[in-house]
Amino acid sequence: MPSVNVSLYLVTERSFLPPGKSVQDCVREAIAGGVSIVQLREKTATGREFLRLARELRDICAAANVPFIVNDRIDIAMAVDADGVHIGQEDIPLKDARRLLGPNKIIGVTVKTIEQALAAVDGGADYIAPGVVFPTTTKDNAVYLGPSGVGEIIAKVRQHNATIPIVTIGGINSENVSAMLREVEQASGGFKLSGVAVVSAIMKHQDAQLAAHALKSCLVDNVVNVEGTLALANSDLVERVVSLLQRVREKRPFVHSITNNVVFEMTANIILHLGGSPIMAHSIDEVEEIGNSIDSLILNMGTLDKFRIASFHKAAQKANSRNVPITLDPIGCGFTSLRRQAVAELLSSTRISIIKGNAGEIGFLSGSMETSSRGADSVGKLTDPATVAMTVAKKYNTTVCITGAVDYVSDGTRVVRCENGNAFLGLLTGTGCSTTALIASFAGVAEGDYLAASVAGCTVMGVAAEMAAVKCGAGGEVFGPATFRTALFDAVYLLTAKDVQKYARVFCLDDK
Ligand SMILES: Cc1ncc(COP(=O)(O)OP(=O)(O)O)c(N)n1
Ligand SMILES: Cc1ncsc1CCOP(=O)(O)O
């Protein structure tokens, strides 16, 4: 059994769900937010109800390649072919569970003492869960060990030469998790936890994706990279993003946007807040002259008409003649014949440095039938976005960026997965166009490295969104999409190299 990724472990509790929300939706959102393993824990369900839920959650988890664990009930785990079970000290013993489930299923064991931890390790558990770390009202009579008690157990297990993943549980939320992880590490003499398990911090949240994201952001650097556990962000790429951020602020690239009517003001401001210098102009009578001095050009197809198309061509010709990077945002490019024709003509007559679109738009350019566009919105899902990004990049000899809950960037050779962001971005119109504007600003100083420019644009938007969303909740200043917008723009303006180094989650996919 390969080491199981327990970095962010969701344990369910249906009674905590906000009104109208299903456990299935919550689990889907939580996975999109970064949960690495899910446990169905239903203390009051009938056997049949438990079985039905287990089947449904197993399918959701399997589709996302996330292990699905059943709490206590080995019979139900076996009936639905779950990936494993979690058992406590009062449940069926580990030895019997293993005999029933065989060597290929995951068995996790709750441990409250050093003796129980070593017994579970020696008995062949796949992970152990010392706890509870903080008092919690979610489980009755849970005796809490505190970070120091959990740290002592980790120390003894690691001294015992065991690399088994160790996850703790109980009263953990996005506010106390970072300090807890540090305290545990200190108390264990330098050994980190492999992950954290939570119930209420995700289940009670209106937006489980946001809640999971907020927790996951705190885990990077604080959770051990046990084999198969939380992958480390690619440090070369992160440093490239940092240096591009510094260059934008030093050089103030002059970015010309021929964009749509909805995002005029937003685009100008995001470029300005990042550190660039925007010019918003679309008249055919001046785009060529403007092209004499710009560092980067944006062609955004949002509100398209024949005048804008003509301006695109004139501006693009000038940009190509000066080797100025062009970032194309082919909004709704498969939706109407005007858009289909415009994008085909642009791609055949001009050199485009970066195409940034959603799954519907890039899917259309790849010829995929999996997705489509409804106006500016994407419909459907790409089964393999990394390959689609690479295919379109090769086809048009460009860099392609597919934005979504996770962004994929490819220059036709490499593929990078950018994981930052949160659900609020989907609730605010213009955030996609703002990402395009960030990418184009970075392209203006990237000296031809458009893969890095695209990764930088997606990462800055994603990290800023996560930082803005932290202000959501009791005592915070973010109440919904409108206040989020203000916090997001401030976060872009205030973003530091340290923030990027701490929070960026960018991963090169070597196997592509
Ligand atoms: C990840 C994880 N850790 C601990 C527990 C608690 O399990 P247990 O001690 O068996 O208590 P119940 O869950 O049965 O109340 C868990 N479920 N998951
Ligand atoms: C299932 C379980 N086992 C030990 S504590 C606990 C519940 C933790 O819930 P919360 O994350 O809401 O404190």
Short description:
Its cofactor is Mg(2+). This protein is an alpha/beta fold and 512 residues long.
**pLDDT averaged residue by residue:** 92
Number of domains: 2
Q: Bound small molecules, which ones? A: ligand LCLJCK34, 4-methyl-5-hydroxyethylthiazole phosphate
Estimate the global geometry from the Cα principal axes: elongated
CATH architecture of the largest domain: 3-Layer(aba) Sandwich
Structural class: alpha/beta
Low-confidence stretches: 226-232
**In CATH terms, what is the fold-level topology of the largest domain?**
UDP-N-acetylmuramoyl-L-alanine:D-glutamate ligase
Helical content (DSSP H or I, runs of 4+): 40-55%
Radius of gyration (CA) equals 25 Å
Q: Please count the helical segments.
A: 20
Distance from N terminus to C terminus (CA atoms, Å) equals 25 Å
CATH classification class of the largest domain? Alpha Beta
Please give the largest β-sheet. 9 strands, mixed
Q: Spell out the CATH superfamily of the largest domain.
A: Ribokinase
User: What strand order characterises the main sheet?
Assistant: 10-9-11-12-13-16-17-18-19
Question: What is the number of strand segments?
Answer: 19
* Beta-strand percent range: 15-25%
Oligomeric form: single chain
Name its key features.
single chain; 512 residues; alpha/beta; TIM Barrel; UDP-N-acetylmuramoyl-L-alanine:D-glutamate ligase; 2 domains; eight-stranded parallel β-sheet; 20 helices; elongated; binds the ligand Cc1ncc(COP(=O)(O)OP(=O)(O)O)c(N)n1; binds 4-methyl-5-hydroxyethylthiazole phosphate
